[in-house]
Amino acid sequence: MKHRIVVLGAGYAGAMAAGRLAKRLHPDDTEITVINADADFVERVRMHQLATGQDLKPRPLSEVYAGTGVKPRLARVTAVDADRRTVALADDNGTDEITYDTLVYALGSVTADHGVPGVAEHAYDIAGRPSALRLRDRLAHLAAGGTVLVVGGGLTGLEAVTEIAETRPDLDVALAARGGLGDWLNGKAQQHLRGVCDRLGITVHEHTDIARVGAAGAVTRDGREIPAQVTVWTTGFAVHPIAAATTLAVAETGQIIVDASMRSVSHPEVYAVGDAAIAEGPGGKPLRMSCASGIPMAWQAADAIAARLTGRAKFPKTPLRYFNQCISLGRRDGIIQYVTADDRARPALLTGKLAARYKEFVCTGAAWSIAHPVLYPVRRHRVVPTRSEVRTAAS
């Protein structure tokens, strides 16, 4: 009987894990199924581009995994029973339940509203393709002179606000940041960022905490009103609540607690990667939710699963660390902030057109590697039956 591996989610982490498993394990011994709510692999790091009217290259999962042995299935995950090793699904045909021997949990994250009133009713986000397309349609119908407020001064907020301002110079675009503008970057990077915002005509509200969002804009904690016909919410991410509803050990964030191999500390047949897992990085700091964390986590999990199933005591250790932060500031500018292993800004950086090309190379490379999951060299090892499986077969 084939060992059933089920991967939940085909974002960067889930899609990468599935492809790497297909590269490591013999198809005669394993059955790898990827469950995803979207028929395509979606480049989440490009949602700000999609929202501003740019078209992205479609990457159907059926084509991505053609000839690999990985079976993509279009469905929504509604529940996981970690004790029975089952996953409940829903699709256009109704509901279903599938069973796994090994589970890779990679359901990712959604926009976090942090309990701020009015966000769900009045704000847009770019956490996924459907929401980015809603914002795209709203911006397309916004007349010249219209007002847009992006709330959140992190990487997503900076990329969104500069992309909107560059694409629609006829709009009045503003950014509300809880701290100082790019205050985690080094001094030169902050200076460059301010110059870009000035050049694009972006009004920056620093040290501004939003208390509520309405149809006509946002209200700050100190009672100031920031008018906006369109409010874009980019203040961070929260994981899907499915894991917290299971018997899996999770952190206060709802993320699955894993060991160094991305294996659940409570259920050894479950691995978690990407935003859905909380893993320890350099200095004991939890890895932040990002593509830069999710892909190495996927490599680590896939290699650990392959080693365990094929009877190898040791498996390759993937460095879970940071090298740089890549920030696009429109299509022709950017910042590459080099960082320490634990994600603190170093003096070195790139800016301008060179940084924009660097960021594009990184994004294109990540998507290309997922779209070509089993290019050579491929070393597919045979699965070694466990002692319990041998005893069951003998009886």
From TrEMBL:
<keyword id="KW-0560">Oxidoreductase</keyword>
<keyword id="KW-0274">FAD</keyword>
<dbReference type="GO" id="GO:0003955">
    <property type="term" value="F:NAD(P)H dehydrogenase (quinone) activity"/>
</dbReference>
<dbReference type="GO" id="GO:0019646">
    <property type="term" value="P:aerobic electron transport chain"/>
</dbReference>
<comment type="similarity">
    <text>Belongs to the NADH dehydrogenase family.</text>
</comment>
<dbReference type="Pfam" id="PF07992">
    <property type="entry name" value="Pyr_redox_2"/>
</dbReference>
<dbReference type="InterPro" id="IPR036188">
    <property type="entry name" value="FAD/NAD-bd_sf"/>
</dbReference>
<protein>
    <submittedName>
        <fullName>Oxidoreductase</fullName>
    </submittedName>
</protein>
<feature type="domain" description="FAD/NAD(P)-binding">
    <location>
        <begin position="4"/>
        <end position="302"/>
    </location>
</feature>
<dbReference type="InterPro" id="IPR023753">
    <property type="entry name" value="FAD/NAD-binding_dom"/>
</dbReference>
<keyword id="KW-0285">Flavoprotein</keyword>
<dbReference type="InterPro" id="IPR051169">
    <property type="entry name" value="NADH-Q_oxidoreductase"/>
</dbReference>
